[in-house]
Specification:
6 helices
Amino acid sequence: MNLTYKITPNSILKAISKVSGFTVNELVTEGHSHSLAQWRHLGIYLARESGMTYVEAGKVFNRHFATALYSHKKVKGLLNDPDIAGALDNIKSFLNK
């Protein structure tokens, strides 16, 4: 049997916070730090992959839907990168707990 867990905006934020070391507040603030942006990109990608619209995924991280569109495409193009794949696996393991 394969159990499916509902992924919520809050669970995505908490999982990224645990893996990245940044607080949820840091992830949703207006800052444009490169290191924070990378984690936001991953979070938006996961939000989209879990069925959220670009608008909904952007709202999770307090970003415009165009940023969500860019983030999703960027991460999708980097899925073969071992660092990106590893980070996504770590985040997914927290989401499935």
